[in-house]
Amino acid sequence: MSGLADRAAKLDADDPLAALRDRFDLDPEVVYLDGNSLGAPPRHVAARMADVIGRQWGRRLIRSWPEGWWDAPERVGDRIAPLVGAAPGQVVVADSTSVNIFKTLVAALRMPPLRPGDNGRDELVVDAATFPTDGYIAASAAELTGAELRPALPDELDGVLGERTAVVLLNHVDYRTGRLYDMAQATRKAHDAGARVVWDLCHSAGVLPIELDALGVDLAVGCTYKFLNGGPGAPAFVYVPHRLQEKFHQPLAGWGGHREPFAMAPEYEPAPNISRARAGTPDILSLLALEAALEVWDGVDLAEVRAKGMALTGFFAECVDELLGDRVEIVSPRDPERRGHQVSVRHPAADRLVTALAEREVIGDFRTPDVLRFGFAPLYNTYGEARRAAETLAGVLAAAG
Ligand SMILES: *Cc1c(COP(=O)(O)O)cnc(C)c1O
């Protein structure tokens, strides 16, 4: 056991990102391995929110709208853009991921075909292992547009994609197993088949390099309260590349996406740019907390973040192997290149184990029916925490007999 402790200490001492942990307000007693579900707060966010509430809202009141509130969705979108490989003016922050999946799917299904004249495509292919909300929303988008749903795994698209495929909705990382899919390959396959692709980046945005522009991705959405640390319920982002903005006709044509919202015109006319992906009034408190939180990424190299994420999850898997053996089954890919920033472990009593771990100040989470998830946020998690989590799990299992 001391071997792992020594290794962890050495890995932490050599970690080029170690200093970033201090930018977060973390309870030193707690091993927090759920940043893939709710990111930890950066320290400076609380003071920023005191200003937003006390001065911007309290003193400036309604005058704050033109002083940086109304255009916050686009401004914060431009802060996220470099994290997902997008040039400015193509990302906007608004609404929830669920709502944005609805907007993007319906817009994609309404777009003219990728190849001119190639009409009659009526299938919406949906990730067969998708996070449930994506599947529910896809069904609702299909119902509205008359499309037919077709399930497929992101690495099993051959034989599914064809002349009927209109749109493909994929999760970059499987939320249950942590499997990371090859975005370049799946995007190419969709395009080769003449279909458009919508990526859900909820579990990858902020922890690994993503190249939306370079890969020619059609549309993408993602959460900001997970690895981007925006705070509970922070609004999600939508990516619409410049080349598709004019063709982006989303179904929630609210005044927020209007060309001139304050002209109060009776007819809807979409904004000529990314703003057309907005719908109503932005949730300023959450949006500005997210804006502040995003400052922790300043000067951070995503390749380095990815390298640490692979090393951290790999080290945790090694600790689990050594301390738990075959008493649990690791269901996340062993190949670090095919693994997101989480390690999922299967055990029949997973639910009870997660509760017992939390009582010992190790926070992971449970996903039905039998999966314990441990998320590793490279900006603040340490190798020492990975070891302590595995050791605590071993102790809990031993106590359970
Ligand atoms: C977390 C997550 C969501 C959450 O959607 P909300 O609308 O924010 O509740 C959706 N899809 C995936 C893949 C997720 O991981």
From TrEMBL:
> Sorted alphabetically, which keywords does the UniProt record give?
Hydrolase, Pyridine nucleotide biosynthesis, Pyridoxal phosphate
Q: In which pathway does it act?
A: Cofactor biosynthesis; NAD(+) biosynthesis; quinolinate from L-kynurenine: step 2/3; Amino-acid degradation; L-kynurenine degradation; L-alanine and anthranilate from L-kynurenine: step 1/1
Coiled coil residues, start to end: none
Per the record, residues carrying N6-(pyridoxal phosphate)lysine are K226
**Where does this protein hold pyridoxal 5'-phosphate?**
T97, S98, F131, P132, T133, D134, D200, H203, Y225, W255, T281
Classification via InterPro entries: Kynureninase, PyrdxlP-dep_Trfase, PyrdxlP-dep_Trfase_major, PyrdxlP-dep_Trfase_small
- Could you tell me the superkingdom of the organism this chain comes from? Bacteria
Q: Which GO biological process entries does UniProt record here?
A: anthranilate metabolic process; L-kynurenine catabolic process; L-tryptophan catabolic process to kynurenine; NAD+ biosynthetic process; quinolinate biosynthetic process
UniProt-listed HAMAP family: Kynureninase
On assembly, the entry states: Homodimer.
Family named by the database record:
Belongs to the kynureninase family.
The name this protein goes by in its record: Kynureninase
Report the source organism.
Sphaerisporangium rufum
Gene that encodes it: kynU
